[in-house]
Amino acid sequence: MNFPLLRTLASAVAALLLLDIGLTVQNVWPTFGVYWAEEPSVDLIVLLLLLALHGAWRGRLGAGWRWGLAALTVVFLAFRYADVTVPALFGRSIDLYWDLPHVPHVVAMLMNALPVWQVVTSAAGILFLIATLLLVSRWAIGAIDNACSIAAVRRGMAAVGVAMLAAYGFGVAEERLDWENRFAFPVSAVIGQQAVLLAQALVPAMAGPGGPDVLPLPVSNVARLQGGDVFLIFLESYGALVFDEDHHRNDLAAPFAELSAAAARGGWHAVSAFVESPTFGGNSWLAHATTLYGRQIVRNGDYDLQLKSHRPSLATRFRAAGYRSVALVPGIQQEWPEGAALDFDALHDAKALAYAGPAFGWWRIPDQYALDWLWRHELTPRPRAPVFAFYPTISSHFPFSPVPPYVAEGDTLDASRAYDGVIPPTDGEQADPIRMKANYLDTIAYDWRLLAGFLSRRASAGSIVVVLGDHQPPAVVSGPGARVSVPVHIFAADESILTPFQTAGFVPGLVPNRQAIGLMAALPRTLLDALDGPPASSLARVTVPDGPAAVSPP
């Protein structure tokens, strides 16, 4: 019995099995873990054939080639892991050109959320894993290469490889999905897709049209509001999930009832609907730009092109009608040159808010403080022009904790003193995927209480308040296969202003019909048309008169 040959064969089979496991893993939802899908890897079959061909032509690989192929294998393993994990947990595919620049911010967020010892051990663990994968891949490449140096073994392995590759090709060519799906989706195809996305980002013309072109937003004199303020409030990660699942509605029954009661006490009428967001689980700016420009923007490249197009935004239209347009963006913590393209009179970012209280997660500033800041600095001064305010919240941002405490009526948020003595948790449990759904519901409850307070004590009766989600929460919370719909609620004291929205498919109350009425991009057009009225004196001369100002926070 030829023991050296058996050892060589056994090593090659073990190497092929190990590499196949790494190249065909699937996600264990809702965690970062993976399992072996027990599928053959097309990439591994190609590698086997290349090594067999090289063995017949040149013999064994040199040490440099073995290390090079090992490093390339680790890259393939990383792409496979990202390709199955990102869609499972975030509900969208990877796009390295746009995702990689956010990695430092994500790392910083995790460093803020986790104790130092966990950050250090996690970093050491990642480095150890990479080194281990490299060493194992180096051994596996060497084991297969050694086997391919034996003529009989090489021919047998090559024959099996050719047969399997032919079977896969037949399944693809003949669209035999039952056979094609017996193989794992090639990692090389994923890398090729990323290369195409990179080329499209660098050369936008290669991407083709991002969707049908649309006319600019309609001009509106906003006369029906008679100088009332307009608030466009995006609740971060506020998705259809909240209404689609019975147990979520039960968990949120109390804050929802509080919101309904507050609206009723304040004399507000409301209509609601679902619309289809251009994004899922992240990339909030696509939803923001879609609503500000009235065009469904589903790709980051189109977002860049839109900002460079100088098309009129909602801010442009309200400015032309005599409004002061302001963007309250506490989530912006660094330079944001894109903001100038949105055409606001003022951009109030994290620095402008001068929040000095405890940091509630990476995003630091509680939504209640930010909205109170807007009231003190933009809404309280009298007399003033009517305000169009765009405000994307951040307290319900991934990873959905820690949740700030809601400040009781009568307290003050000025100078952040309401949060004195509050110590947000930093035990790392906030980043636990298993707990994220409960944490997510807590943040939605918080923002509903915030909205109830705003309607009760901040928004004037002549205002219109548009509240909507930007996207569903990541798939780690919303689950696999969740739809892209988000709720929209529109509040107005004058019920007649809501009639055009009902014509567009909205229903009275705060519970939308399950079927989405259309794309998010249609919302700003409906808003401008609903507020347009008979010719009136220019709102540029309309100011909010002097009067008593409330002193309690939202």
Structure overview:
47% of the residues lie in helices and 9% in strands. With 554 residues, it is of the alpha/beta class. It folds into two domains: 3-204, no CATH class; 226-294 and 306-515, Alkaline Phosphatase, subunit A (3-Layer(aba) Sandwich), CATH 3.40.720. Strand 1 (25-27) and strand 2 (34-36) form a beta hairpin. Helix 1 (3-23) crosses helix 6. The radius of gyration is 28 Å and the shape is elongated.
Question: Count the helices. How many?
Answer: 21
Percent helix, as a range, is 40-55%
- CATH fold-level topology of the largest domain: Alkaline Phosphatase, subunit A
Q: How would the global form be characterised?
A: elongated
What is the radius of gyration?
Answer: 28 Å
CATH superfamily label of the largest domain: Alkaline Phosphatase, subunit A
Largest sheet: 8 strands, mixed
What share of residues are in beta strands?
5-15%
How would you state the average pLDDT, rounded? Answer: 83
Number of strands: 10
